Amino acid sequence: MAEEHLERIFQDKIDEEIRIEPKDWMPDAYRKTLIRQMSQHAHSEIVGMLPEGNWITRAPSLRRKATLIAKVQDEAGHGLYLYSAAETLGITREEMIAQLHSGKAKYSSIFNYPTLTWADIGAIGWLVDGAAIMNQVPLCRASYGPYARAMIRICKEESFHQRQGFEILLTLSRGSEAQKRMCQDAINRWWWPAVMMFGPSDESSPHTAQSMQWRIKRFTNDELRQKFIDVCAEQCTILGMTIPDAELKWNPEKNHYDFGPINWEEFWNVVNGHGPCNKERLDARIKADAEGAWVRQAAFEYANKKKEKEQRKVA
Ligand code: BYC
């Protein structure tokens, strides 16, 4: 069948909200876009374990420690579902990980910032997981079946993460003066990086238009960013804290909050490898991969031996 005709059938399916499955015909560019986005999403989940993992030994109580361990384990699970979903597109996990380690594949800019105090764990939950939910709930309706299905469980867990973060901040906001200051300081440092997580503004986003047509994305970067700011501006009043943006103001005509300018220079600097923790994060992943090589090798040998034994039994 001619390529053009196949493309027509493919786009018709998408327009009719019929999911694309691994064995269906798809344009090369659709496959490439999905591999890029899903692998970068998986890498973000795995790299995202590092700033939080940093606080497991210093969590202020057993309850906080148990919850944080569970959260960090959830992120590992999210990474694994997403790597598996991306593998259905014909790339191996080893190839994806090699692309992360060589710097070819990106991961979310947000994880290149340091976690300086316990309040940062609260701010990550409230703001970073809050931004993640805003971006990821629409991905449950992405046109590619394995991605959309993986996102359902991920979103349920992200929603628990967001609440645990908000609850940490709420506790601090009702605590001593020092705890209140710590809470505000964490919000001050995480606010703008969280706003940047949604990616470049629509006019500077090379992929949005095509991804919207393919219904991988259901909203543009700026639409999701605006929704996030509207929700957080209200939630921040419950904390009795302020958002570090002097221009944040309800606009009754637009029915949205207006907000100040985003520092895109900082964003691209971090995306291009020059953020405060880029080197530390990649080095940690490369080291973990090298140190875990013997485990993968042992698991591989064990699986082979088991298979051989079973084959001998059959013969
Ligand atoms: N950081 O045309 P655009 C999480 C890149 S996990 C770094 O708008 P697209 C969590 C973009 O990749 C958070 N790079 O692209 C985990 C592209 O570069 P390439 C991750 C960014 O794909 C653990 C270029 O800029 N979430 O939340 O249409 C604990 C142009 O951008 C960023 C996902 O991955 C960024 N922030 O839209 C807690 C969700 N933004 O690839 C929380 C799935 C943009 O051409 N991904 N870039 O070299 C998406 O929804 C989309 O890929 C994005 C970007 C909205 C991120």
Structure description:
It is a single chain. The protein has 315 residues and is mainly alpha-helical. The protein folds into two domains: 1-220, Ferritin, core subunit, four-helix bundle (Ferritin, Up-down Bundle); 276-314. 68% of the residues lie in helices and 2% in strands. It has helices at 3-15, 28-47, 49-53, 62-87, 93-102, 118-136, 145-173, 177-196, 208-213, 221-239, 264-274, 278-291, 293-314; strands spanning 249-251, 256-258. It has a two-stranded antiparallel sheet. Helix 6 (118-136) runs parallel beside helix 8 and helix 6 (118-136) packs across helix 10. It starts with a helix and ends with a helix. Benzoyl coenzyme A binds next to helix 2, helix 6 and helix 9.
Enumerate the strands of the largest sheet in spatial order, edge to edge or round the barrel.
1-2
How many beta-strand segments? Answer: 2
Number of domains: 2
- Specify the helix fraction band: 55-70%
Full CATH superfamily name of the largest domain: Ferritin, core subunit, four-helix bundle
- Ligands: benzoyl coenzyme A
| Average pLDDT level | 97
* CATH class annotation of the largest domain: Mainly Alpha
User: Which structural class do you get from the secondary structure elements?
Assistant: mainly alpha
* H/E element sequence: HHHHHHHHHHEEHHH
Main pleated-sheet profile: 2 strands, antiparallel
Gap from first CA to last CA: 44 Å
Proportion of β residues? under 5%
| Mass-distribution shape | globular
Poorly predicted runs of 5 or more residues: none
**CATH fold name of the largest domain:** Ferritin
User: Architecture of the largest domain, CATH level 2?
Assistant: Up-down Bundle
Radius of gyration, whole Å: 21 Å
Number of continuous helical runs: 13
